[in-house]
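Quick board copy: two proteins, each given as sequence then tokens.
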Amino acid sequence: MSGRAARGEHGPGVHPSQGHRRPLTRARGRAWLAGAGVLALAATIVGCGPRAVGTDQLGAGATPVGAGAVSESPRPATPSASPGAGVTSAPGPAVGDPPAALPGRGVPPAAAPQVTRSSTASAAPAPRPTATPGAPGAPGAGRVPGGLSGISAGSLSEVRAWEQFRGSPVDVIVTFSDRSGWAGITQPWLGTSAERFAGFTGIWVISQPFFPTDGGDIASCAAGAYDERWRQFGDWLVRQGRGASIVRPAWEFNGAWFPWSVSKDRTNWVPCFRQVVTSIRATAPQVRIDWTFNAHNTDAFEYYPGDEYVDIVGVDTYDQWPANKDEATFTAQCEQPTGLCAGIAFARKHGKQFSVPEWGLVGTSDTGASKVGQAGGDNPVYISMMHKTMYDNADILAYEAYFNDDLPNNVHSSLINPTTHPKGAALYAQLW
């Protein structure tokens, strides 16, 4: 989710956020110094929740990827994507987004390994930092959960403020191209100045549509009509010295709020994705492709483009649908067929890393979920459980980025500038 047009990230094509997150089961400043209550809560929570998957639960041929950085293991040669080629395994019947009567139409529960701790895990996580009840936690007193860690940002100033807030460096930024026309897609706004990350030493993650808002469709994309545009984008990455960047084509495709939603054209969606990836790689062979779905909707895994077209399995997830006020609720949502835990299990099964490109708290006013009591608000439990889930699966975590946003009609997830959620901000700064 993103509503950053005001900061130049993707022009007028702002997310419609109020219908953005839906349940699977029913219709669905420096305020970070921790008070004693938050710290006591941290001490109680840290150490529980979803656990790591062991190597004995990996799919055939899959191996864990080392923690701490995006994998640079050799990629199998990408086969030529035939324009108009259909999905190799037929998706289910076309249904609305999401059908309240069909919870979890993502992947049969038995098809994905559960995210649980195993004594045969390839590498045990390092000892977890713990909170001391009654003692203030300094920013950065904890550690990032693994992989690259950062923020969704539109300027270097935002990144520096986030680093100061949490006391640890940002080494990945999630960004969104200006999707109002092809010019903003093939030559994004990044790198035009220091403030726009020209000298940023970390990794760029660029979220890209299939086509601009001024015209295009999934069928034309599948037929190869936009291939040259995507080759131009790949060439731009290389010329910027960013050929190994991460690209998220058609992120959150399983929701209904974007023109590239799979619900718009179920037959041609996968062929389109393959065309885009093949074309970008033609000129930027080191680019990393993140196939990102939304955790709060159905219709994800049956539209997997194939291992040869995906490097990272991404999951965007927020504290809503339902509010995750305790460990049991968080775990139940995480283990839903398109929940974060299901995404991690799917990544393991396919020998991939996973990412959490967008995650955050959700305000209890001016949000779609809040109107029906499904927003978590200032919820340290969610912060702690997200850290634990990522920490326990750090061996395959490519990157994670908090979505710090307070624009109207969006998720209101902001931890700083402004501090919308002081308790959540305090625990985040302590753990990261």
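And the next:
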Amino acid sequence: MGPVKEAIFARLAILARHASQARRATLDSDGLRNWQYRVLLTLRRLGPPYIGSPSLLAEHLGLTKMVVATESQSAWQAPSEPGRSRSAAS
């Protein structure tokens, strides 16, 4: 890789680090952790009605334990579904 490409990648890495720090600061000020933001972002990407089962979230992001933790922290509540051992996350 040439020096120009290396310089471009170095600057992109710096930019990514600054963006990550700014996102973390914003989330911290709102009382959210990064993994909670990722769960909510995934639900947003799934579209209306912004509901996804824990297995669907796990498939997309591997967040099974995080979904359970988010529900227990009352950041959001999953609606109950009759006949299911686990409810959908909303």
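Board note added afterward: The chain has a mean pLDDT of 78.
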